[in-house]
Design brief:
about 230 residues; Four Helix Bundle (Hemerythrin (Met), subunit A); about 55% helix; 9 helices; mainly alpha; 2 domains
């Protein structure tokens, strides 16, 4: 698919995606050069930057929240499974890995999983304006951590797209170490939730890799050919 603007051919996939609503068929889109006096631009007074920003809004809050969180947690579950298999093969007590840390002042593997799931269920609940599920934080085995991940994914699955409509502008307030933080829904998701989830999933990965579990980047990314 090609986009022609004046004498310039723009094959950037982003432009093809954002201008898709203008397409009638899959042939080339012929658009006069920007800033020309052609009637197209008088009817469509948007530059490409503005078009791209408006197209980004088309990604719903649901699509930016639920599928990525489910995928991260699913990949975390697979990483933990490899950790358990490694411990069984090497005849290592499971508690050795579950209590392992990258450094003395960092949380152990178990706590990394707990925080990743807390962030995920908290995000879904706060953005949907529903009650956050409460967990006991008493997991002491790989199977219990897997159960925690599974019930978090099940909770995320219970949230419908319409529950997150308009959530990007919803005011979100959280309390961290007696400090109150206020976000818009969008900032909460992009600047707090997603970085934290990826941090703790990555740290769980690093703990197990550091202890000899055979993991690679593909384990963190998951199978790209499948959905969440």
């Amino acid at each position: 698919m090609m986009l022609f603007a004046g004498n310039h051919c723009l094959s950037d996939a982003r432009l093809c995606i954002l201008l898709a609503p203008l397409m009638i068929n899959q042939g080339p889109i012929i658009i006069p050069a920007p800033k020309s006096h052609h009637p197209f631009w008088s009817r469509n007074p948007l530059n490409f930057d503005t078009l791209f920003m408006k197209a980004a809004i088309m990604l719903s809050t649901y699509a930016a929240t639920i599928p990525p969180l489910k995928r991260a947690l699913g990949n975390l579950a697979s990483i933990l499974e490899k950790g358990q298999q490694y411990a069984d093969t090497k005849k290592i007590e499971h508690q050795v890995l579950l209590n392992a840390r990258l450094f003395a002042d960092m949380y152990p593997l178990t706590r990394q999983v707990q925080i990743a799931t807390d962030m995920s269920k908290g995000a879904g609940a706060r953005l949907a304006a529903i009650e956050i599920p409460k967990y006991e934080d008493n997991e002491a085995s790989f199977s219990e951590l897997q159960a925690r991940i599974n019930k978090t994914i099940a909770f995320l699955d219970s949230i419908k797209p319409e529950q997150l409509e308009g959530a990007e502008t919803r005011e979100i307030t959280i309390s961290i170490r007696k400090t109150e933080l206020k976000f818009s829904g969008q900032d909460y998701l992009l600047k707090w939730v997603m970085p934290n989830v990826y941090f703790h999933v990555t740290t769980a990965y690093n703990i197990l890799r550091h202890n000899g579990v055979e993991l690679g980047k593909q384990d963190f990314l998951g199978h790209l050919s499948r959905g969440v």
